[in-house]
Structures are given as structure tokens and as C-alpha cells.
Amino acid sequence: MALTRCSVAAPRPQKATRWKARVYVRGHDGMRHEIVRFGRTRREAEATLEAAVAAILRGVDAVLNPTMPLLEAGEYWLKQIARPDSGLSARTIADYSWTWQKYVESTTSSLRGLTLQQANDPQRLRGFLQRVAEAHGSASAKKAKSVLHGVIGYAVDNGVLSSDATRQVRTVTSTAAKSMVRDHTRAMTRSERDDVIQATLLAAREPKLNPRTRRKRRATADLIAFLAGTGARIDEARRVRWQDINLERGRVYLRGTKSETSDRWLNLPDWLVAQLAARAADCGAEA
For residues 280 and 226, is the Cβ–Cβ distance under 8 A? Predict the structure, then answer.
């Protein structure tokens, strides 16, 4: 009997490309639940499973979880700071909301497709903030970091994340050279200012004007005169009511727009007192 030599190739070992992690947990409802999660590596599958278990143990009413989209976590945080008990002003809440929409939710954002846990990474956050700084300036990057710190810090406070990666990211600044171009346009002279005030008054006195147009021109003329005579900001001037003005003493009480301590009394020049008295006589001093 003839013998022939033959070779058999050893089976090529297959490397796992997907890991499955499974555990049974008894939840707050007393029932036994099977939790299954997958990952590209063993560590990723186990980490995802641990996060899911932690979310269940926090309670069925928990909203935040590590695997939720960052954009959803941000929207939830914005709703929380809009509550009266947040202690934040309406202006601050509006600024945070605008910054979140402008930079994080933008179609060019490198974070918008990540989960809350994935975004909580110093390298990713630093790269995102550097791109914001280069495109929009250092101040914009600082604002973007503030809102990200708010969202991630809120997740840490609620036990959803173990740390806040924004604390590991130093201040990011733009590499673009600062422009030193200054505006050297001069202010109006006193005579030029007086000419502008007089021109607005003459425009309001033109004959055959529509009554509505006349009222608008008169209001504009008096507003410009008030700004010129007091140096008030336009928002401060628009807040003034007749009860804030003492024509006999030539004084006005301004409610500041920057802070509560910016409220103040100002002395009025004689020409402005005369113009305000004429307005009170013509239009009434009730509003």
C-alpha cells in the first residue's frame, strides 16, 4: 500500500470584533432584569454595561445617563437653569442658551454627535475649544467652555459621570494676531451736537405732517436731546418716566442697566429742562 504525504492547514484563529457583556440586576421595582450591552472591546462593553446598571439603580425616573446624546443632556441642563430656583438671571440664561446653540449644536461642531460620556474627554474638549477660538475668537471659546462645564458638571453632581473633563482643559486662546486698528473718528463738537438737536426739532415741526409721523419725530428729537444732555445710555433713557423727572429742581432719576448700584440722580442742563417742559405741555406728563 502506497503512502502519500498530505498537509492540513491549522484553522486560523478569529479575533473577536464585538464583545457582549451581560448581567442580572434587581431594580427598584423588585423585578429581576437582564441587562445586555455590546462594545468593540471587552473594556468598552463592560463600561457601557456598568453605566446602564448605574442608571437603573438611580431609579426609573432618572433623566440623565452617560450614553445619552450630549445635545439632549445640554437641552435638559438648559431647562434646569431656566427654573426660578437656579439663581441665574434671565440675561445669563439667554446667553448660555445662545452659546450652546451657536457652538455646540452647530453643524460644524465636533461634539454634536457624541454621547455625554464620550464628550467628557479632555482631548476632544480641547480640540473643540481650539476650533471655536480660531473661528470665533478667544472670548467665544471661553463662553463655550462655560456651558460645557455647566452640562458636564451637572452630570457629575447627579452621579451620572465620575469627573468633569473641562477642569483638565486650560484656557484656550486664538493664535490669530490681535488687530491694533483703532477707530480715530472724532466726536461731534458742541456746535455740531446743537445743530443735530435743532435739526430733529425742525423736522418734527414741518407743516402738513401726518400726526403719527409728527409724534415719532418729536419723540426722536426729545430722546436725542435727553441723551446729549445727560450722557445716559439709550436703554436708561427709554426707561425714564415723568415721575422720575423733577423739572423744578432740574433733576432726573436714572435706573441703571448694568447693576442695581448704577441707579443715580443727575442734574439737567437748563436747555434740556426747557425742552422737557415744552414736551410736557404739548404731549402731557402722564406716561
Answer: no
